[in-house]
Each structure stands twice: as structure tokens, then as C-alpha cells.
Amino acid sequence: TLNRMSINGGPAALQSRGVSTSADDLCELGRRHVTNGLGRLTEGIMAKGSGSYVEYEDGKRLLDFTSGIGVTSLGHCHPKVSQAAAEQCLTLVHAQCSIAFHKPYLQLVERLLPVMPHPSLDSFFFWNSGSEAVEAAIKLARVATGRQHIICMQGGYHGRTYGAMAVTKSKTIYSEGVFPVMPGVFSIPYPYWHQHGLPPSTPTSTLVSRSLYQLDLLLAQQSAPRDTAAIIVEPLLGEGGYVPAAPEFLQGLRDVCDKHGILLIVDEVQSGFARTGKFFMIEHSGVRPDIMVIAKGLANGFPLSGVVGRKEHTDKLKPGTMGGTYAGNAVSCAAAVAVADVIKGENILANVQDRSRELFDSLEALRSDPDVFPYILDVRGAGLMVAVEFSSPNGPGAQFDPVTKADSPKSLASRVVKACIDKGLLIMTTSAYEVVRFIPPLNISHQDLKKGAEIFGQAVRQV
Ligand code: PLP
């Protein structure tokens, strides 16, 4: 293989030099040997990150409106977070939590307790990835209620491990032959998701009541309330297209849960940690979760996720039900403590709210430009989790053209992404829906936000 890749001097020379070789050769190696075409959005190797910018090995510098899919929320290599992690690296890298607590774990609990959306959320368990934490939340709900069924949302995304995939119903991200993965999973429509068959004037309350009606039907039929452990919901649909849930929908779910003794799992993996201008998206509705899942922005790039529940529920877990060798790693926890301190100390929530207004204003102005108007169907989101949904040139609401496959909303979105990257803005679509999403760092400056919005506008006009 190395010969075929014609790396200068062949394998022997490569070995004598160690593995480092040119960026082009390494990319070629990636294309051949890294599964599933990862790294395909931008050609090249991302070499450095600093604040709102990333730099590629070839020197190309891009303004980053992806934040590694909402992870590096305080910008790349935030000095206080990197410093905290570096110090922890020199102190204690790993302590298996079943053997002993480590200090950053407990300090993180201390930081998180006061920012929980409800004081009843008082029992924490940390993991590495969002998917693992979703699995743990499902497990916790089943143990706490003694019931098996889980209700999820059409359009929802919760990860790619088996249990998380079972409750993921956004457009298929998986191949045939993998499903079904978990019995006892049912879904209801998330209001607004795929509503485009409906007249544009359909009020939100109609969509909400339609979903809640489906929930009632489901509970009356396939999944009797006495069998249902939990309803899992993203308060702002992420990979399904950045659709915020109407507060009355979330309240409706809460009411159904209260009526039937079902637990409400709120997945804040993407929407949590100040992303929407409050610490958690669910706070915008005032609805109380029974279990909350957090990850992504929690540690600004270090792998860390968490499940927060009520002590009365987590006390029912037998030792050994939850666990993982690397769960709650000390370096990640130390980084997360620094993240929490920065969010508080550097007035990040206020910055998100200010920059969010600017972003919405500029995208709405773009949408009302007569040249652009027919192509932008929707601008939506909350805080700095914002998306633009494109429409076919045949008019707002027109659907994918199965004959030409051209100029569908999906192809428009990916062409806009490509044009943005060419012009110096790193931006992406959601994995399961044809929207272009904006997830800039939460501490982005007015100037950088303006610059990114301008590049986006130029790219849209060009495409
Ligand atoms: N839940 C939500 C809402 C997500 O957006 C994601 C990832 O994008 C996950 C869960 C899965 O997290 P991870 O990719 O860390 O496993």
C-alpha cells in the first residue's frame, strides 16, 4: 500500500524517518485507510486552532463557525482551559472512579450544581461521549421506573451507539441490516420537523397539539403508560435541522410524564452549556427534566459527557450498572471546571445573546434581499445555534427535484458550504437535514461574527 501511494522513497525510507510525511501523502493515506470518508468536508489537515480560527497545514486560515460541531465553544485552545488541562496532565491523568474520586470530578459537580435547570437534578455521572451518556440515561430511566419502553421524536438525533441509534429518528444515518437495535422504542412527530406539506401559515400551536395528540394515541395503543419509562427529547433539534421546540410542546411532554409516572429525558448534548444564551436550552421553557444529558461544549474539546438525574432515581442503580474505564477522565474534568469558570467569569451568556441578535439580524436581512428571497425558506435556532434552511429555486417550500437532483435544498446547502470554505469561512450542514448551521464560538467578537455573516451572504449570492 505504501508503495502504491508512492510516498517519497517508499516504505523503507518512510520507516527510517518515522511516520511523518507530507500533508498530501498523509491525506492520501487518510482517504485510503480511514473508514467512511471522514475528513471530507475540507481537503487537508487541520493543524492549529486559536480562538475563532483554524489553520491548515498548508497555511490556509479559516474562520470557524463549526466549533468542531459545537464542542470548542470557548474557541480553540482557550488559554485558561488548556492551562487547566496541562496542569492536570502533570498532576494526575487518570483515576478509575470506582476506585477513588479525583478532585476535578468533584469540583465539576460543585460548579454544575448551581446551574442546573432545576434543583432536583442533583446526581451526576460523567462519561466520555454524548452517545454513552444517552445510553446511561435510558438505563437510568428503565431502572428508576422498572419499565422498558422509550418514546423518542421523529427528527431526533442522540448518537451512534446502538441504544442511542435506536432512539435516533432523524433521516437515516445508518445502513440496512443494522436495525432493529432495541425493542420497545416508539416515536412521535417533533412539531415543525418536516412540516412543509402544511400551509406556511399553520400555527405552532396546531403542530404542537398534533404531536401531543400522537403521543396520547401512542400511549393509548402500542406503548401503554405502565410500560413507558421515558420520553427523550432535544429541546432544540440538532442534527434534525436546528428546530427549537415550542415551550408549550415541552410543557405538554412534562404534563404527560407527570400524569403517567414517565421520566422526561432532555438531551442537551448540543444545545447545552450556554450555546443558546442560557446555560441550558430547556431553561427557555421553564420545564423541569427528570434526567439531563450533557456533552460537547462541556469541556471545550476534551472528551467528556454527563448524565444528571435525581438522587432518588440514581440510588436505585446497583453498583456496576453504570461505569466505564475512562468515564469522567481527570484531564477532561479539569478542563470542564475551567470552562464553567470562564462562562461565569467572562460574561459568556451576555455575549451569546448580543451576538445572536446580530446574527439573526444579518441572516434576516439576507433573506429579505430580493435576489435571495426565494431561496431561503427559514432562519431559525436560538442563541448561537442557528440554521438557514434553503428552498428550491422553484419557490419557498418546493421539494427536492427527483429528476435532475440539482438545485434541491440539499445541493444548494452543500454548494453554499463549499463557497464559504473557499472564501475563508468554515461552516457545515447538519448531518441529517439540508440546513447550513452556524455554531461559532460563544465568545466570538462582533467583528468576527460580522465577517462570517458577510462571507455567508456573498456565498449565498454567488451560488
Ligand atoms: N445527542 C445529541 C443531541 C447530539 O447532537 C449528539 C451528537 O451530535 C449526540 C447525542 C451524540 O454525541 P456523541 O457524538 O458525542 O456520541
TrEMBL record:
One Pfam match: Aminotran_3
Gene Ontology MF terms: identical protein binding; pyridoxal phosphate binding; transaminase activity
InterPro entries per the UniProt record, alphabetical: Aminotrans_3, Aminotrans_3_PPA_site, Class-III_PLP-dep_AT, PyrdxlP-dep_Trfase, PyrdxlP-dep_Trfase_major, PyrdxlP-dep_Trfase_small
Top-rank taxon: Eukaryota
Cofactor(s) it depends on: pyridoxal 5'-phosphate
Keywords for the protein's UniProt record, in alphabetical order: Aminotransferase, Pyridoxal phosphate, Transferase
Protein name: Uncharacterized protein
UniProt organism field: Tricholomella constricta
